[in-house]
């Protein structure tokens, strides 16, 4: 039996692949700095429940004659597992290479691309295929709420069929490694790379699709697909000429209602952008022979992905919401959905990385202020820095000052603990506390802590 190791196995991308290999009969070992620090115990327990063997991140897993070590691009060469692998001449492969290798083994492989909404659309397509009896393997970057009772970490749906659905990430260029049956372009907006660079990346991705491409007709940049002469299906919530057009979108207390082909359906998620995500998923599944009525009916029981406008709870008539939004488009979509309901917003945005904030910090702030009422408050702690040689020529204080220039209430905090105390002080009945930011499990922990203290 093949033996492999995963460095930083608790991360969403790595844990998903570790589970897939374990499911396929590979002997899997893993380590994670957070486990050594006593964190992410839930993930550790979930992985060991599948037979994955967890070791300290000190190189000791190599006592088991590991044949390949998988590590993400974020993992430094100084980590003991990486150093030990090099000493023993054990091959080190990137997570993206393994994902591409698994993906290529499936007849009907669907890669969900786009700068926003990938996790939700991947989850939706996977859920429809699963409920339609297609037995898909689904590899996601988010926790799937419909599968929280399954063994392991529910960022995968483990099946043995001919279908595979994955997120295709453009931020690290790994999208170039996939040759899909269907390419999906949910949108092309400012995130990790300039727009013109993204247009080329996604056009090439679309051209490599064997069956066809699904694209967003509401996104001006995605329309580049229309000039490529490909087999394509479009979706929209604004343009009636799209192949899949949802109309009469109505916010409900427990979700959103919409109409497609003269029939009304309900989605248990808030926001018009989630109806657009649903139309994207329906278009994909129609290319696979599933009718739009069947797909929309299945989606009525879809619960969504964790940290996507997820309500953590309510106390003293104050609601705490956790959200992954971290680029201008995602922030605008989330804020627009939140403002379709009553109640003051106290929004914490946790910026990650100096380079991303230099690229799009002002645009993110403008997405916030475009939706904020005069009594809403934006609270921003200092930019999160994980180490390295970044140029620290921008601060969250710059973002706060930009928000204030629009006449909105915004507060800068050097430390998140101070921001936490301010939220407790400010919150009153009827308010919604929204915690936003990517790649940071501590944001969710902060939300639950607030619920205890309110």
Structure notes:
- The structure is a single chain.
- This protein has 454 residues and is of the alpha/beta class.
- It is 34% helix and 22% strand.
- It is built from 14 helices and 22 strands.
- The chain has helices spanning 12-23, 33-36, 41-48, 80-87, 95-103, 118-131, 195-207, 272-287, 292-299, 328-338, 354-371, 396-404, 416-426, 441-453; strands at residues 3-7, 27-31, 53-54, 68-71, 92-94, 108-113, 137-139, 156-157, 163-167, 182-185, 212-216, 232-236, 244-245, 247-252, 255-260, 263-267, 310-315, 318-323, 345-349, 377-381, 409-413, 432-436.
- Strands 8-7-9-6-10-11-12-13 form an 8-stranded mixed β-sheet, with helices on both faces. A 6-stranded mixed β-sheet has the order 17-18-22-19-20-21, sandwiched between helices. It has a 5-stranded parallel β-sheet with strand order 3-2-1-4-5, sandwiched between helices.
- A hairpin with a 2-residue loop joins strand 14 (247-252) and strand 15 (255-260).
- The model has no long low-confidence stretch (mean pLDDT 92).
Summarize this structure briefly:
The protein is an alpha/beta fold and 454 residues long. The protein has helices at 12-23, 33-36, 41-48, 80-87, 95-103, 118-131, 195-207, 272-287, 292-299, 328-338, 354-371, 396-404, 416-426, 441-453; strands at 3-7, 27-31, 53-54, 68-71, 92-94, 108-113, 137-139, 156-157, 163-167, 182-185, 212-216, 232-236, 244-245, 247-252, 255-260, 263-267, 310-315, 318-323, 345-349, 377-381, 409-413, 432-436. Helix 10 (328-338) packs parallel to helix 11 (354-371) and helix 11 (354-371) packs parallel to helix 12 (396-404).
